[in-house]
Amino acid sequence: MTTATRQEVLSLYRSIFRLARKWQAASGQMEDTIKEKQYILNEARTLFQKNKNLTDPDLIKQCIDECTARIEIGLHYQIPYPRPIHLPPMGLIPLRGRRLQTQEKLRKLSKPVYLQSHDEVS
């Protein structure tokens, strides 16, 4: 990891902790605020620990992009949780063999950048 990349990652990590410190739940209730702050901190720690040994610059860039997108989406929608993706009805009909593998591949490719690591951690 280059020095510039390392600084960018550390800056993102610090900004997430600053965001968690200032976070207010949209409902305005203190219990919700505490739960959401704890979620933000736990999610950040988990994902940064999981990715701390990455050496491939493309993977690191992808993780940085995902982190930035999740911060921006969280601030915009005032929810710390990743927004779900919606597939059209019967988008994944039960198939067997090659067709099922093709659909699974297409679904994985269509997943937004801010959800790339969500299923792996949850």
UniProtKB/TrEMBL annotation:
So which residues are the signal peptide here? none
Gene Ontology terms: cellular component: midbody; mitochondrion; nucleoplasm
**Record-linked InterPro entries:** Complex1_LYR_dom, Complex1_LYR_LYRM1, LYRM1
The residue ranges of the Complex 1 LYR protein domain are: 7-68
Q: Which domain of life is it from?
A: Eukaryota
A Pfam family per the record: Complex1_LYR
Family of the protein in this entry: Belongs to the complex I LYR family.
Protein name, UniProt field: LYR motif-containing protein 1 isoform X3
Protein's organism = Mesocricetus auratus (Golden hamster)
Q: What is the lineage of its organism?
A: Eukaryota, Metazoa, Chordata, Craniata, Vertebrata
